[in-house]
Design a protein that fits this description.
Distance between the termini: 79 Å
Radius of gyration: 34 Å
Shape: rod-shaped
Strand content: under 5%
Number of helices: 3
Length: 95
C-alpha cells in the first residue's frame, strides 16, 4: 500500500504538467482508481495468525475459568470442613 500511496502522490504532482487532454483524462482515471484502492481497508493477517483481540479474550477466559475452579475448590474445602466440624458426615443421623 505504501507503493500505491507513493505512485498516487507522484502522479498527483505530475498532473499539472500534462498538456494533452486525453493523456490527462487517462491519468485522472488512474488517479481516481488509486484513491479508491488507498481508501479500501486491507487486512494482511494470514489465516494461521490469531488476532490480538482473540488472543487476549482467550487468555481472559482461561484466567476466569482457573479462578472459578479455585473458588469452587475452596468452597468444597470449606463445606467439607463444616461437615466434619458439625458432625454432618454421618448421614444415618438424618433418617
Amino acid at each position: 500500500m505504501k507503493l500505491l500511496g507513493t505512485i498516487h502522490d507522484l502522479l498527483e504532482r505530475h498532473l499539472a504538467s500534462i498538456g494533452e487532454e486525453d493523456v490527462r483524462q487517462d491519468a485522472l482515471r488512474y488517479l481516481r482508481g488509486l484513491k479508491s484502492l488507498l481508501a479500501t481497508p486491507v487486512y494482511l493477517t494470514p489465516r494461521n495468525v490469531i488476532l490480538l483481540e482473540d488472543h487476549v479474550s482467550q487468555r481472559v477466559e482461561r484466567a476466569v475459568a482457573v479462578i472459578r475452579s479455585r473458588q469452587i475448590a475452596d468452597a468444597r474445602r470449606v463445606h467439607q470442613s463444616a461437615v466434619g466440624v458439625f458432625g454432618w458426615d454421618n448421614y444415618d443421623d438424618f433418617d
